[in-house]
Amino acid sequence: MPDVAIAAPNEAAADAGEQVARAGGNAVDAALAASLVTMVNEVGLVSLSSGGFVTIQPSGGGAPYTVDGWMDMPGRGGGPLGGGTWDIHTGYGGGVDITIGPGSVAAHGSVAAFEEAHRRDGRLPWREVVAPAIDVARGGFRLSAASRYYLEYVHDSIFGWDETSRAAVHDLQGEIVTDLVVVPDLADSLELIATEGAVALHTGDLARLIATDVRARGGLLGPDDLAAYAPVTRPSLATRAGRWTLATTPPPTVGGISVAAMLGLLEGRPQGAWTDADVELMIRIQREVLGRGPASLLESSSTTHCSATDTEGGACAVTVSSGYFSGMIAQGTGIWLNNTLGEQELNPGGLHALAPGTRLLSNMAPTVGRHADGSVLAIGSPGAGRIATAITQVLAGIAGGLSLQEAVHHPRVHVHHPGRPDEVVKRETEEGLTMYYGGVGVTLVHPDGHLVAAADPRREGAVRLVRST
Fold first, then answer.
1. Which range marks the domain in which residue 201 is found?
2. What total number of domains does the chain contain?
3. Quick one: 193 and 319 in the same domain?
4. Residue 294: its pLDDT value, please?
5. Were both Cys, which of 303, 381, 399, 445 would link to 438 (CB 3.0–4.6 Å)?
6. Do the domain assignments include residue 10?
7. What is the rounded distance in angstroms from the CA atom of residue 381 to the CA atom of residue 320?
8. Tens-digit pLDDT profile for residues 48-107
9. Do residues 208 and 83 both lie within one domain?
10. Structural domain includes residue 452
């Protein structure tokens, strides 16, 4: 039984990671269990109708790999192109236009990716990995600070048009609920996933309920789209930072490419604390890397991230998202459905412009790494277009000699819309850390077995260090 370090975006998710680690699970089991809990209690950020990426450093020094469980363009069975949608504007994230409704729902893939990662490198039975999420769904949960912050902007416009959704997040006065949230049918859906695996969401009862409801309300997602979906496993993209050899998400996602490019251009800076000159260099690099090419598109919605490492040399970094949410809960499932087709920055050609089965764009970059001394690390972040810049700055700080917590807490800089007329350089202060700049979770195991974890105060992050003795 390995010792395991866990970083998660909330206490319940961290508890889930600890629970499976104490049952004998490894870093993969812990990170997946924590992430499944976020699909229950991080309302507005992620759900079971989601996509994501899992990057793994196998124990024993095997080659790192990434399981791509991001979402596909639906429409394999034909359907009403452009139907079942409407646009809203919200001030969230500095102001964004969003397309929601049944027609914005893409083919999900995160649970299928989790199952594949677990098959390859998990240790506990799949049911035990899913069990903590079932408990949270059945017992109820309070909205996290990140969920509540987002819902303050969109609780009516996105989460208020569907009757089941409105009832789940509003009290009798129409305000955001402060009591425990129990979403009808969600625990039962998770029980099916625990028993049947991801097939429940692709060819089983849950797939049937989701596709039927989406189509009945004018959307495009159908049973053929869910049945044909498959996660893709690829060798991770290799890069370096100081004495760290890192592995991150490879193409076609652009998040890992962006992290690798920015780390390379930093050329080993900072050395210790960030200087003003280092920060100015970071700003120039963001303009260079993010201000042109496909990465310039990626100002998409929020996400959640969990990291875990263990004393057998394993590391697992998991990032998942459901977009801004379509607003609907599929009848009989308790599952809020994604709106990834409606993320306008990620779909510049239009809502349904891509061919059915095409994998959509993503900026996620869950990353693992090995130090020359044998230490193992896992890191990632939510934060929309700030994912790559947050991860880069924290990794550069760690490589330059900062402790994990020092690197995570350090104020960040982000160039919003680099190279455009509306470009804004946003600088964080030590007194004003905010979730706009991401929510990095990072874990580390030293060669002597010493565990370290740091979770971002910007998002109520939580850590656990689980020792077998």
1. 21-234+314-346
2. 2
3. yes
4. 43
5. 381
6. no
7. 10
8. 999 999 999 999 889 999 999 999 999 998 776 767 899 999 888 777 888 999 999 999
9. yes
10. yes
Specify if 308 maps to a domain: no
Q: Is residue 337 included in any domain, yes or no?
A: yes
Task: Read off the pLDDT of residues 198-238 as tens digits, 9 standing for 90 and up.
Answer: 999 999 999 999 999 999 999 999 999 999 999 999 999 99
pTM of the model: 0.95
The count of C-alpha atoms lying within 13 angstroms of the C-alpha of 155, restricted to the half-sphere facing its C-beta, is 18
The model's pLDDT over 427-446, given as tens digits with 9 standing for 90+, comes to 998 888 888 888 999 999 99
